[in-house]
Every structure is written in C-alpha cells, then in structure tokens.
Amino acid sequence: MKEVNIPSGRVLKAPENFLTQDGIRTVFEEGKHGRRDFIRSAFAAAAAGAAVPAAMAQGNPVPAEGGDPNILNLPEHAMTLGQGVATEGGYGSPSKYEKGIQRRQSPGLTQTTQASVSFAPLQSLFGIVTPSGLHFERHHQGWYDIDPSKHRLMVNGMVKRQMVFTMDEIMRLPSVSRFHFIECGANTAVDWGNVAVPTVQYTHGMLSCSEFTGVPLITLLELAGADLKNGKFILAEGGDGSAMTRTIPMELITSGEVLVAYGQNGEMLRPQNGYPLRLVVPGVQGVSWVKYLRRIEVGDKPYAAKDEAVHYIDLMPDGQHRQYTSVQECKSVVTTPSGGQVLLDKGFYNITGLAWSGKGKIKRVDVSVDGGRNWRQARLEGQPLSKALTRFNIDWVWDGKPAIIQSRAQDETGFVQPNYRQLRGVRGTRSIYHNNAIQSWLVQENGEVKNVQLS
Length: 455
Ligand SMILES: Nc1nc2c(c(=O)[nH]1)N[C@H]1C(S)=C(S)[C@@H](COP(=O)(O)O)O[C@H]1N2
Ligand SMILES: [Mo]
Fold this sequence. Notes:
Elements: E1 2-5, E2 11-14, E3 25-26, H1 29-47, H2 54-57, E4 116-118, E5 137-139, E6 152-157, E7 163-166, H3 167-171, E8 176-183, H4 200-204, E9 207-216, H5 217-223, E10 233-238, E11 245-249, H6 250-254, E12 259-264, E13 267-268, E14 278-280, E15 293-299, H7 306-309, E16 314-315, E17 321-322, E18 331-336, E19 347-356, E20 362-368, E21 376-377, E22 379-380, E23 390-398, E24 403-411, H8 420-427, E25 440-443, E26 449-452
Bound molecules: the ligand Nc1nc2c(c(=O)[nH]1)N[C@H]1C(S)=C(S)[C@@H](COP(=O)(O)O)O[C@H]1N2 and molybdenum atom (MO).
Residues 138, 184-186, 286-287 line the site of molybdenum atom.
C-alpha cells in the first residue's frame, strides 16, 4: 500500500501496483513525516514540561530534535533565497510534486496514437475548469500546430458572398467568452456492456470544460449574406487529414450559441484542441466541435457525412440505427471517492463530483451511499451555468462498512439521469455512444474503491 493525496488534500492509501495508481497524487513528504512528527514532538515537549519557545506556541515550526529547543528547525525555503522570476522561461508549469497528474491513454484501446484518445484526470481536478494542458484529446488523424498566419476559414454554399477569412479578420470581430463542457459521444462507452475500466479517468475522462472565446458563427454567416430562411443546416469541415465534417442544425447557430473559437481559458487554443480555430457547439457531442476549422457551408439538408451517417450512430434494440444524435443528455459522476482511490479510515469525507447537461443548466444532484435506496441532495457550487460542468459536494461519514456511492443529476428541463436498467430499457445493450447512466463506486471494507454496476 502506498499513501496518496486525493483532491482537496486528503491522504488515502492505494495498492502499490494499481493500474492507474499514477493517476492519483503521491503524498507530500511533509504529509508523511513532517506534520505528524510536528504534532508528536509538540506533545512530547509539552508533556516533559520543557519550555516551549514562544514562536512554537504560536504554531510555528518545531525545535530540532534533541537540540537546543530555542533554535528553530526552519525549513530551507524559510531561510534561503528563492528562485528569480521566469527561471524556467516565460511560461509557467505545475509544481514538480504534481507530475502524477496527467492525461492518459487507455492501454490497448486503439492501434495508433494518432487515431486515439487521452483521458482527463477528473479525480485530481477542482471546480469546473479543466486546465488546458489536461483537456482530453480525441484525434482521428493526429494533431497539428498550424501556422495561424496561413490558416483560412471559408464560408460558402447558400450565401450571397463566398468569403475567406484570415485569423486577423476573425479576431477583429466582436467576441464573446463562455464556459462550456465538451464530452465525446463515446465517453463511458466501454462500460455499456459491463464494468470495463477501473477509474473515473477512464470511465468519464473524455469530458472537459473551458472558457472558450470566439465569434458567434451567426456573425460570419451574416457577413457572407447567408440565406437564413432556406439554409437549414451548415456543414463544418476540419483542416486535418481525417476529413472531419459534421452537419449542424441552423437553430443552434441563429441562437448565437455556436462559436468559431480561438481562445481557451484565457489564451489561444492548444494545438491538440484545434489551434488556431475550432467550432464550439454547446451541449452537442464532441465530434461536432470541429478542430482546425477551415470551411463552413450553408445548405438546406443534412450532409450525411461519414462521421454522422456511419460513425457516431446508436444501434437501438429494434435493430435500427439512430443517426444525428447530438445533444449530450444529463449526466453526472462522483470523482472522489472514485475507482482506484482508497479511503484511509472511517470518518468524514467530502463526496464531490461533476454534473452536466447538453440541454441547459443543472437543477439538482442527489447522492446515494447505499446503491440508490436513499438519496440526499448535494450542494451545487456557485450558480450552475448552461451547458457547462457543475461541481457538487456532500458531506459523508463513512462507518467502515461497504458502501455504494452514486450521483443522479437533474437538469432544468426536468430530465433525470437514468440508471443502467432504465437506460438499457430504452437503448438496449448494443450501443457504444451516449451512455449517461448513473455510475456506481463500491467502497470496500478495506477502503479500496471499485467500479461496479448494479443490475
Ligand atoms: N478536425 C478534427 N476535429 C475534431 C476531431 C478530429 O479528429 N479532427 N475529433 C472530434 C472528436 S470525436 C471529439 S470528441 C473532439 C475532441 O476535442 P478535443 O481533442 O479538443 O478534446 O474533437 C472533434 N473534432
Ligand atoms: Mo468524439
């Protein structure tokens, strides 16, 4: 067993060779020795009636063991000169103690790294924003770092003026910044049939949330004089070799929600996420968020592109394929405690997780610790934003007995996240995409948390 630090600083134990152990934080040395020694020696000093230095009585560091109790054993960082500004170059990086927090590939999931996925470490994140360097990646033909001065966006089809925009031209236009989640339609896909992967990083990590900045697509369509009466759809086309094209219904665009985005969390998009330009289609599955966006065509019918007619379809129980499913239905997941984490001891824990809906705002989240028999309402952090992640928390005192932790979200339309029985009742068992079932985590008596499914 190895001690690990989970989000919000609590220390848990995890098996040494656990598959995804490295997805969880390793304990700080201070946590392992320093603090406990501090408390122990403070007690020892008080018990021995030793003169406790004034600084220590105020909660300052401990006297050197066996030495002069008046000499404070200050840590090096309190006595030496720190490093100068920008010693690592002009762009900062996380602490060296946070190296274990990485996006990860699922071994054996795909044959090449170019047509693959890296999952976001949801178990280690706070709040609702995914740091750009940890945003999940899904590429069909690898990622590129495209020269923005050479990049162009063409608008054609049912328009009065076909236009080609440079990045400079796009960035002169009125912009907006909004928080939105992006979830791949295949998120949680491997668990459709049964439990397949051990941690929340692999079950739900094709999910991220950023503040995106860009120009509403409707602005570009208006500049091009698009026929908004007969033009019912657009086709969005990416500039990479995967020929990623998707049909987007015009209602989403005229509402002003769809953005041609260049910004992500206050800076330009990362190359892995579509630099210099991507489509942001709030609430809609990730595949429609076309990266390296190079062309928008206005048309009067759906385009039946390969990634909507053949891929990203749902096989229904009657044997028919459901096409053009795009809005991500209401879903939630507990991120701590979650698979692969180990509770150190009985007692208090903050259960925390994420909820989201492609149809709007999260209205409420309920949490069960007994496999869905009883539910308690969780606290939502801040004001839930539409089509963004919402963080929830709830207090829990673990009595040391096996417990099954679940979360169930409800959105502002009244839609309640289904359990597996309800979902399979409608969708059957042969789907891949769009699994929004309630997730169950089993806390075992030894504290180890496991991915389980209840029938
Ligand atoms: N040009 C292009 N756009 C693309 C893809 C791609 O392979 N090429 N993948 C799509 C899929 S399936 C998803 S889930 C999202 C992933 O976005 P991300 O890599 O920024 O997380 O991008 C979408 N847009
Ligand atoms: Mo995707």
